[in-house]
Write a structure and sequence with these properties.
Chain lengths: ~525, ~250
């Protein structure tokens, strides 16, 4: 069974989703356990896959679906799964985030979407299946199919909230569909020029037949990139994100916000490094100048817009836009000629390591913050920042986890946010892009202002005073501690521990990422 | 705003034109020399489909075997569409304030009798399209849509309640799930027999009366197409019912 782990990590949650939809019609209480079992299995199989990857000599595990292997048949006859160090790590992150979000959802689903728990959990599982499938696949069209699965499920999961959520979901649906169509059109162009859908196959043909200067390939890259750009919510195509994320049901926000944009960044990396290859993206296109500037604008705009928000979830949504700017900027830092062929990509591309690292740490940070905010909103009764007064006294554990998440977002040393930012900033120095380094530092300062304002409200803010019948001032529920239930606290504490763990293991993670980049620089064959 | 949209559309058009502008770069329409036609993959499919799978229709073989994994998730997409529409629009009313207004007109005698004649034929044709997908255009998706249309015709000619008596909402959900279970079941059967997921050839070990892996692929393809048909039929009907009644799933039209 071990060698089937790459496909089982997809199929087990898929079956769990189907059983959820079927058995849930009769036994609603089965849905949550089924979901959790599905995600535990996915986590187990993705850890096994990653162990296999790191143990193998060329640091990748290849699985041919339907047995159409590349040794007997031409590459690309069937669909291929290829797990390397980058997506191996990401698979674990996706499964773990989904598991924690599912445990957290217990209090919310029956409250926010009454009567539809089976459908909710089935869609929830299928969203994670779609995201894992996009991450693991080595086939450009299979990626599109899984993109459809994950997009459709996320539209539905967002729209299940209030009436305002369905308007936001509709906006997201239009934008997302345009993005997916662009992606599909680009893959079509690539297929016309190369006759292959396998990512490595496309790359080999592009290099082998000298197609790097072809206008059709250029248009293909442009279309695919714009499609992913929309999915990324990279500025200025990010208008759909704040509404969709802040109005979604709580549990939906907790899985979509940490994963959706991060998986899209991964897809961008995969398209850049594996499908087109660094020699095309960095040397032939040389978009490095404008792309990093757009990233700078994205970071500054996202941070400033976050400063102006009164609603906590909305503020976090704008911060995601800034974080996407970090990752896209880091990926494009490499200047033309920055990588000589055959040379290790790592020695010249610390920015790429930073991007990979930030995908992982941002997923963990966003999860921690969205979980904490979800728990805080329950206690405060509203999502306005002003209403967070006195929360430290009411629920100290929740607030402690929120502080850890906030410190990671600001970039304080033992947490992962510091290390990923460190790699991004040193990448910027290495490439001589001072504007990017400046934007990162400004955004950290803005984050510090934002989060300390909330922490101040929650710690020092006095609860509103009420006059009793005799005209005496009386504080209501003074000192009363009402912590959240364990189903909310356990995932929250685990998420904040993960933030510190990802930070402490920074050497290992950066080592894996540089190993991955070396493989890419050697032509992807390992 | 309209002008801006115009500029965007114009720019995208220009980019697409740029892509096909150079004649020696972009293959002309339908040419046999295009990279897609000359590639080892297309050559492989043309030469070996019948050898590998015994299926004369190459499209079906690519869809249901070589790239069967994509098709499994296309089926999941259909399933998700049904679940998603249910999740968004379904409203549960427990005899509340807003009573459903039912039309008190009787079903038209000409229409209902024509449908009585047509529906069995439509359903037979759906099964034919499904079963004949191996050698002519057709398959689970097409057959499923036709089958779903026959149930929708019942709902149109009589009303949704009559259609739901034959194929209830719950049954539709169960059938749509069963379709995916059938598809994934074929995949898992190959895993349990020691081969890769969806490597149907190995199923000949447990399929009675089939002794070659090629014929096993042939029958397994039919099996997964049946699964696809289950899902597509029930989701088609479910989506119609939900949208036609604004999520109330009663009376309708």
């Amino acid at each position: 069974m071990v060698e089937h782990a790459p496909v089982l990590l997809m199929v087990v949650p898929l079956l769990a989703a189907v059983f959820c939809a079927l058995l849930g019609l009769r036994w609603k209480a089965l849905c949550l356990p089924l979901t959790i079992i599905g995600f535990i299995a996915a986590l187990y199989f993705s850890v096994i896959t990653f162990l296999q990857v790191s143990a193998s000599s060329d640091h990748q595990v290849i699985y041919f679906l339907g047995g159409w292997n590349a040794s007997e048949f031409p590459r690309g006859v069937g669909i291929e799964y290829r797990v390397d160090l980058l997506n191996g790590m990401l698979l674990i992150v996706i499964a773990a985030v989904a598991l924690l979000a599912a445990i957290f959802s217990k209090q919310f689903v029956s409250m926010e979407t009454p009567g539809k728990e089976p459908q909710y959990y089935a869609l929830f599982l299928l969203l994670a299946v779609g995201l894992m499938g996009m991450t693991i696949t080595a086939d450009a069209f299979n990626l599109y199919v899984l993109l459809e699965v994950s997009s459709l499920t996320s539209y539905a999961l967002i729209a299940m909230g209030s009436r305002r959520a369905s308007v936001a979901a509709f906006q997201y649906l239009i934008m997302g569909t345009i993005g997916a169509s662009f992606y599909l059109l680009g893959v079509g162009y690539l297929y016309i020029k190369t006759g292959s859908l396998n990512m490595q196959g496309i790359h080999d043909i592009l290099i082998g037949e000298g197609l790097l200067e072809s206008p059709a390939v250029y248009v293909a890259f442009l279309l695919i990139f714009v499609g992913v750009w929309i999915k990324l919510a990279f500025f200025p195509l990010s208008t759909w994100l704040p509404n969709a994320y802040s109005r979604a049901p709580t549990a939906t926000g907790c899985i979509i916000a940490p994963l959706m944009t991060k998986v899209s960044v991964y897809i961008m990396l995969r398209i850049m490094l594996t499908v087109f290859g660094p020699e095309y993206v960095y040397d032939e296109l040389s978009w490095s100048g404008p792309m990093v500037w757009i990233a700078v604008v994205a970071i500054i705009a996202g941070s400033i817009l976050a400063l102006g928000q009164k609603d906590l979830r909305r503020m976090l949504s704008y911060l995601i836009i800034a974080e996407v700017g970090y990752m896209v900027g880091g990926a494009w830092l490499l200047a033309p000629g920055g990588m000589a062929r055959g040379e290790s990509l790592y020695s010249t591309a610390t920015g790429l390591v930073g991007t990979g690292y930030h995908i992982i740490s941002d997923a963990a940070m966003t999860l921690c913050l969205f979980l904490a905010v979800g728990a805080m909103i329950v206690k405060a009764g509203s999502s306005r920042i002003e209403d967070m007064k006195g929360l430290f006294r009411k629920c100290p554990v929740t607030m402690a986890c929120f502080v850890v998440g906030a410190l990671a977002m600001i970039g304080v040393p033992p947490t992962c946010g510091f290390f990923s930012k460190w790699y991004l900033i040193s990448g910027a120095f290495e490439a001589g892009r001072w504007e990017f380094a400046a934007a990162l530092i400004i955004s950290s300062l803005v984050n510090a202002v934002l989060f300390f304002r909330i922490i101040e409200f929650a710690y020092f803010g006095k609860l509103p005073e009420v006059d009793d019948a005799h005209g005496h001032h009386q504080r209501h529920d003074e000192g009363g501690m009402e912590e959240n239930p364990p189903s909310m606290l356990v995932p929250l504490v685990l998420a904040s521990v993960a933030l510190i763990a990802i930070g402490l293991f920074n050497k290992e993670i950066a080592g894996y990422l540089s190993q991955f980049l070396n493989t890419v620089a050697m032509g992807g064959q390992g | 705003m309209k002008k801006l949209a115009g500029i965007v559309v114009f720019t995208v058009g220009l980019i697409l034109l740029y892509g096909v502008s150079s004649l020696d770069d972009f293959p002309s329409w339908g040419t046999p020399d295009s990279p897609a036609n000359k590639s080892p993959l297309s050559q492989y499919f043309i030469k070996n489909t019948i050898v590998d799978t015994e299926v004369p229709n190459m499209v079906t073989a690519v869809l249901a075997d070589y790239r069967g994994y994509d098709t499994m998730f296309e089926t999941v997409v259909i399933f998700v569409a049904g679940l998603g529409i249910f999740a968004v629009v379904r409203v549960f009313e427990h005899g509340g304030a807003s009573r459903v207004v039912t039309a008190d007109t009787k079903p038209d005698i000409i229409i209902t009798n024509t449908c009585r004649l047509l529906i069995p034929l439509i359903q037979l044709f759906a099964l034919y399209v499904l079963a004949h997908g191996h050698s002519s255009p057709g398959g689970g998706f097409q057959g499923g849509v036709i089958m779903g249309a026959s149930f929708i015709l019942v709902a149109l000619a009589w009303d949704l309640d009559i259609a739901l008596k034959r194929f209830s909402e719950k049954q539709a959900f169960i059938c749509s799930g069963i379709g995916i279970l059938i598809y994934a079941g074929f995949g898992l059967a190959s895993v349990f027999l020691g081969e890769e997921f969806l490597n149907y050839g190995i199923i000949h070990k447990i399929l009675p009366g089939v002794d070659s892996p090629e014929m096993a692929r042939y029958y397994a393809m039919l099996g997964v197409e049946i699964g696809v048909m289950f899902t597509v039929t029930s989701i088609m009907f479910l989506i119609y019912g939900l949208l036609a009644t604004r999520g109330k799933m009663t009376a309708g039209l």
